[in-house]
Amino acid sequence: MFTSIFGAVLAACFARTTLAIPTISVKGAKFFADGEQFFLKGVAYQGTPADPLINTVQCQLDAKSMEVIGTNSIRIYHVDPYSDHDGCMKAFSDAGIYVWLDLDTFNTTVVQTNPTWTEDQFLAFTEVMDVFQRYDNLGGFWIGNEVINTAGGSLAAPYVKAATTDMKTYMAAKKYRQIPIGYSAADIAELRPMLQNYLSCGSKPDQIIDFFGLNSYEWCGTATYESSGYSNLQAMSAGYNIPIFFSETGCNVGGERTFDDQAAIFGDKMVGTWSGSIIYEWVQEVNDYGLVDYPNGQIYNGAPTPIQPDYDNLSKQWKTITPSGVALATYKPSNSPPACPSATLGWQLDGDVPLPTLAPSIISAVAASIKPIATHHPTTSSANSAVPTASTSNLSASDSSTNTPAGSNSGTGVTQGAGPSSTATSSSPSPSASKSAASALKPQPNSLYKVWTAFVTSSGHGGIVGLAIVTVLLGTALAVFL
Question: Could you tell me the strand order of the sheet in which 24-27 lies?
């Protein structure tokens, strides 16, 4: 009898909070969920520097409103790994919504001007991965967002690839499910298509990102497939070997947002290559890109009120476009990894350069450790010794006029070069405080972490304390069941 109760208690204590939604996987250039191809219909969901996944009631309100318009994905830029996310993750799971989450925090991202990939950065990334890997509606992780934000920033790319490699190695060592890891790129004409090809080139799968996102705001007003430059984006991505989608889109220049680009993305011309889009953004900020407002002008505080006609316009687009895709069982990938790009005027790396990855012993040691919650506060002051060098001189040509996001979401405030898809007027969101490095999260350990720290720091001799913890937890659980 006691054995049965004890087993039930343990099962209840350690059961996952989200089981009803199928996990997302990658095969070739497609996403799949429950045997069918998956297309993102998403919104960016982070209007403040604070973690948006800790207020369960608010998440339930927003998830319900998102579900109404056909949303199946949200993009989260930064979270606090010390907080409890069970309620919000379940709220979005119940609404059929997947979370696409950045592994970095404001002070641990790879920085273009002084790129590093250090043990401290790695530890911070693992803290986020450890917390969120257990949720079935975790669609994928971002290894970086607009790390490279100018035409001359390609020397930072190996650090992005090194981070990808080490995080995949860590994921395998921890025996987590194979969660896709991707990168979200600024739309910089001088780097097309070199960056997307570099991040997906090579013969070692652990060095290749699993998906590529593009932040593009080029389809504005009455633009067309050709005038917006989407035809160029399609031409550069046809035959790409991994899933590619728009990780930010939704120009608000030229009148009301009609989201006509969604018909192209999910239509015959692009649906064979592109896996959907994420609209920027859910929350209304000063840049006027929001789909909803909240009472008294406060963000994430109460029932969301749709901003019209944008909210309904997006709903109409998504509800009238339902691509069928292909079935997992019959899909046979035929696209091989591209060749690693050679050095050109806009790309300073020559081929498959060595990566500044961490020592395998570091990764295996961290993977073998017991980490019930985040325990490190990383910095990015120390540089890795394996530093790629430029194979060509600095760019002699100046950047072209911009129509891509200026500091969009990454908080860099750097104007990015535009290219064939440019229009005359900038359509990018102004820098948002919610993604600004000046508004870094300051995690605070919760009570469980404090108890655990007391246990571990007692030179490992915490038998009495450990017994007390187990007794309290089991006693509480037994009281609930009995």
Answer: 24-27, 30-33, 36-38
**How do the residues of the chain divide into helix, strand and coil, expressed in percent and rounded to 5?**
30, 15, 55
Report, as ranges of residue numbers, the positions in the chain whose pLDDT lies below 70: 1-19, 371-482
Identify the CATH homologous superfamily for domain 24-439: Glycosidases (3.20.20.80)
Output the CA torsion sign for 51, 52, 57, 60: negative
C-beta separation of 90 from 59 below 8 A: no
Model's pTM, two decimal places?
0.78
How far, CA to CA in Å, does 336 sit from each of 19, 240, 242, 301, 351? 34, 8, 9, 47, 16
Distances 199 to 57, 87, 236, 281, 350 between C-alpha atoms, Å: 39, 35, 15, 26, 13
Beta strand pairing status for 30-33 and 24-27? antiparallel
Domain boundaries, the chain: 24-439, 447-481
Catalytic residues: 146, 248
Provide the mean pLDDT of the chain: 80
Q: Which of 267, 263, 274 lies closest to 233, judged by CA?
A: 274
